[in-house]
Amino acid sequence: MTQLICIVCPRGCTMHIEEKDGAYSVTGNACKRGERFAVSEMTAPMRTICSTVRTAFPEAPVLPVRVSADIPKDRIFDVMQEINHVVVNTRVRRGDAVIQNVLGLGVDVIATSDMLYTSEGR
Amino acid sequence: MRTFDTVVIGGGPAGLAAATAAHENGAKTLLVEREARLGGILKQCIHDGFGLVRFQEKLSGPEYAERFIDAFHAAGIPAMTLTFVTRIVPAHNGGFHVTLVSRDGVETVETKTLVLSTGCRERTAKQVSIHGTRPSGVFTAGTAQHLTNLLGELPTRKCVILGSGDIGLIMARRLTLEGAKVLGVYEAKPTPSGLTRNIHQCLHDYDIPLYLSHTVTRVFGDDRLTAVEIAEVDDKMQPLPGTEQIVECDALILSVGLIPENELAESLGVEIDPKTKGPLCNGQLMTSVDGVFSCGNALHVNDLVDYVSESGECAGKNAALYAGKKRREIPINASKMLSYIVPQRLDLDADNRETVLYFRSRDIQNGCTLKMLVNGEAVFTKKYPFLRPPEMERLTIDFSKYPLDAASKVEFDIEVKAK
C-alpha cells in the first residue's frame, strides 16, 4: 500500500492506494479528482510548471509563463531548459504561446500576464 | 476637493474585489495603489494553484489578478497608481479626508467610507534575531521572489531556507527550477507552517530536505554570506548546545511569517486583535471605527487568495451600503482550541443571515467537531476529519436562526474525541 498527499486542491487529503493486478483502489480522497491524481501518481506522474522567460523590453525584463497543461514529472527540467532559451520580443498577451508544442509533449508554454501588452498604455 | 463614497486603499486582490463590489453597489469609488501596477503580491506569485476554489481552475498569480483587473477596468472605476496615502483624518460630516501623494503632487480627497486592503508584510531577519555579521545574501522569501520573478535576477546559487511558510516552500521549488541548489528548509517548530500540498509538490518532488525543530543560530560572511550555523531546538524552540553545524551557502532565505499591515488603521484608532494582528471586525467587516472596513491579508493572513477576494467583496459591498446606523455588537469568542476566528464581533442589528467565518485550529487535531455555543449551549456543530493550523477553515453561519440579544455569549470551540 502506498500513502500520498493529494496536491490537486488545498484540502491536501492523505490517500492510500492499493494495487491489485494492475488496478488501483484509492481511499482517503474526498473527490474524484483525488482518485485520478492518485492513479496518475502511481503510473505516470504529471506536473504543471511555471517560470519566466526573458523579454526584449526594459520595463519588464521577464514575463511569467506556464505550461498549458500538465507535463510528465520527469520532463520538468527538459522543459525548463527550453523555457530558458526563449527571449520574447513581441508584446504577447496572456494566454499567447511563447513555445508551441514544447518538446513534442503536446502542450504549449503560454504567457500568464498581459503586462507587456498593457504597459504600452491602456 | 474631490469627493467619493468609498476610497479603497491597496490595489491587490482584496482591494480590487472591494473596489469592484463597492462600485457595483452604487458607490462612487476610488482605488489607491502605491505601486505602478495593480495586482499586489500576485504580480510576483507566478506559480499556479490560485483560483481553485473560485474558478475551479489552476491559475497563476498574474492570471488570477488580471481577471479582477480586467473586470475593474471594464467597470470604469478610477484608480490612482504610484500613489501613497500619507494621512487620514476624520471629517466633520462623519467621513474622512485622505491625503494622497503622487507624481501629480499632493491631493486631499473626501470619502464617506474607507476600505483598508493594505495586505501584510513579511517578518524580517531583524525580527527573528540571528547572531553574526551583517553580510548581503539574507533575503525574505518575498524579496527573493521579487528578484527572481519580476527582475529576472537569480539571488543565489546555493541557499538555506529558514521557516516553512508557503512562500519559502514555493521559492525552494522556484530557485531549484532556475538551477540553484536549495540545501534544506529548516523549521524551528516541530510541524511545518506551510500547506501540506506545498510540502509535497515543492519539497518532496525536488528532493529538498525539510528539517523540523531546527533553526539558524548564526550567519557568517563579510561582504556576502558564506555560511550559516544550524542547531536543533528543544520544545521551547531554544537551540540545543552541541547540535550546531556549519552549512556553507551564499544566501539565507527567510520565510518566518507574515504580519498584517495596519499602520493606517492604527492611525485612525482602529482596535487590533492581538491574535490576528488585524482589525477587530464585525460580520460586515467594519472595524471598531464607523465607516472603516478591512479585508484580505490586512484583516488576517489568509492562505488562499480566493478568500482574500471574498473578504474584499464583503467589505466593498458593505462600505457602499453603509448608512451610518448605530451598531449593537456582541463579541464572537474563540476558545483556547482556536488560534483565532474572524469576524470577532456580531452586529445584532445587521443582516447576519450569511455570515462568513474564518478560523484556524491552534493545534493539529484529528476527528474533531467545531461547536458554536450560545450561553454555553451548543447550537451548531460541524465535524472535521482533521484540522491543521496552516490550513484556514471557512464556514457560513445564518445567525438569524439563533435568538441572540445583547447579553448573549457566543463562543466557538473545538471538541476532540477522547482517545
Write the topology of this structure.
The complex is a heterodimer of chains A (122) and B (419).
Chain A: E1 2-5, E2 14-20, E3 23-27, H1 32-43, E4 46-47, E5 50-55, E6 62-67, E7 71-72, H2 76-85, E8 87-88, E9 97-99, E10 109-111, H3 115-118
Parallel strand pairs in A: 5-8
Antiparallel strand pairs in A: 1-2, 2-3, 4-7, 5-6, 6-10, 9-10
Chain B: E1 3-9, H1 13-24, E2 29-32, E3 48-50, E4 59-60, H2 61-74, E5 79-80, E6 84-90, E7 96-102, E8 105-116, E9 120-122, E10 131-132, E11 138-140, H3 141-149, E12 158-162, H4 166-177, E13 181-187, H5 196-203, E14 210-212, E15 214-220, E16 227-232, E17 245-248, E18 251-254, E19 258-260, H6 263-267, E20 292-294, H7 305-321, E21 329-334, E22 338-342, E23 345-347, E24 355-361, E25 365-374, E26 377-387, E27 393-397, E28 410-416
Parallel strand pairs in B: 1-2, 1-8, 2-5, 8-20, 10-15, 11-18, 12-13, 12-18, 13-14, 21-28
Antiparallel strand pairs in B: 3-4, 6-7, 7-8, 9-19, 15-16, 16-17, 21-23, 22-24, 24-27, 25-26, 25-28
Tags for this model:
heterodimer, A: 122 residues, alpha+beta, CPE0013-like fold, 2 domains, 5-stranded mixed β-sheet, 3-stranded antiparallel β-sheet, 3 helices, elongated, B: 419 residues, alpha/beta, FAD/NAD(P)-binding domain, 3 domains, 7-stranded mixed β-sheet, 5-stranded parallel β-sheet, 7 helices, globular
Secondary structure class of chain B reads alpha/beta
Could you give a short account of the major beta sheet of chain A?
Answer: 5 strands, mixed
What is the arithmetic mean of pLDDT of chain A?
Answer: 91
SSE order of chain A = EEEHEEEEHEEEH
Classify the oligomer. heterodimer
Characterize the overall form of chain A: elongated
Strand percentage of chain B lies at: 35-45%
The stretches of 5 or more residues of chain A where confidence is low (pLDDT under 50) are: none
- Measured by DSSP, the beta-strand proportion of chain A falls in 25-35%
Overall SS class of chain A: alpha+beta
Distance between the termini of chain A: 56 Å
The value of Rg of chain B in angstroms is: 22 Å
Low-confidence stretches of chain B: none
Can you count the beta strands of chain B? 28
Q: CATH topology of the largest domain in chain A, which one?
A: CPE0013-like fold
Q: CATH H level of the largest domain in chain A: which superfamily?
A: CPE0013-like
